[in-house]
Amino acid sequence: MPSKMILEARINEYAMRDQNPHVPWTPDEIADTAARCREAGASIVHFHARNPDGSPSHEFEVYAEIIRKIRARCDILVHPTLGWFANDDDPDGRIRCVTQLAADPATRPDIAPIDTGSVNLDSWDAQAGRFEHAERVYMNRTDTLERYAREFKRVGIKPQLVTWAVGFTRRAAAMIEMGLIEQPAYFLVNMTDGPCLTGHPGTPDGLDAHLRFLPAGVRCEWSSNVVGGNLLALAQMSARLGGHIAPGIGDYAYPELDCPPNEQIVRIAADIARQEGREIATPDDARALLGLPAKSNPV
Ligand code: ZN
User: Fold this and answer.
1) pTM greater than the 0.90 cutoff
2) CA 21 to ligand 1 center in whole angstroms
3) pLDDT digit string, tens, across residues 168-226
4) What is the Å distance from ligand 1's center to 17 Cα?
């Protein structure tokens, strides 16, 4: 009997509305989207707090408001970003919001991300033949990663190990071996398409190359994701291989589907999973699969 499949909705990232008008920004929009994605089959929601004009918000109060509003509407597991804006100049500052949220069980995130390496985040403009944002680096020093893992353990947040390439996975495996990350480990297998050249391509080969190097002898779960590409093309493969999936319009606008809202992408992914014989995980199922405490955070 295959395990149930976790659908993690990645609803907004830093996406603007020029490509897909359904990107949620405000706390109410994010909470409504989370509830609709929950109905469509998602058991985890990953979000970035945004200002009313779409710019990133880094305010603790906004994150707290979002989490309270999500939990007032549904039982979906809550997974806020750390944000990459601080770029490692101030490692403690980068997780201050998350650790502050964790101080109150009502706002404690269930999951938070740790990207286990550093990447260039330029955009390749193939038509013009040049890089945009050539200065952009998403830096995650190893001592910072160790610090985050210790801190998440202390405050009771499950880390999602975001791997952009095999070297990230190997570093994550070492951190598991060090005892910094509890098993089962939860990997987000990140691929990149379109203007972002940094990850494995969002193709069966790109996913396969990731999966071949997941740590042996370690209990882990993985979700697939494609930044800048159609993840639904890998939904069937992810379902067949026993993985999970992290769809949403935060990473890709889905113009080939007329730029739909998040819940529609989640619903399609859920349908594909069911066709492959995978039941869809509820939030409680996801807790059990990922080794989170069975008890929901109080609303
Ligand atoms: Zn994110």
Assistant:
1) yes
2) 18
3) 999 999 999 999 999 999 999 999 999 999 999 999 999 999 999 999 999 999 999 99
4) 16
Each residue of 259-272: pLDDT tens digit?
999 999 999 999 99
Query: 132: CA distance to ligand 1 center in Å?
Result: 21
pLDDT, one tens digit per residue, over 219-263 is: 999 999 999 999 999 999 999 999 999 999 999 999 999 999 999
Report CA(56)–ligand 1 centroid distance (Å). Answer: 11
Instruction: Give 244-276 as a DSSP string.
Output: EE---TTS---GGGTS--HHHHHHHHHHHHHHT
Tokens found for residue 268: 């399609």
Give the domain 8-290 fold: TIM Barrel (3.20.20)
Neighbours of ion ligand 1 (CB under 5 A): 13, 81
Q: State the distance from the centre of ligand 1 to the C-alpha of 48, rounded, in angstroms.
A: 6
Contact in structure between 106 and 146 (CB atoms under 8 Å) = no
CA of 250 to the centre of ligand 1 (A): 8
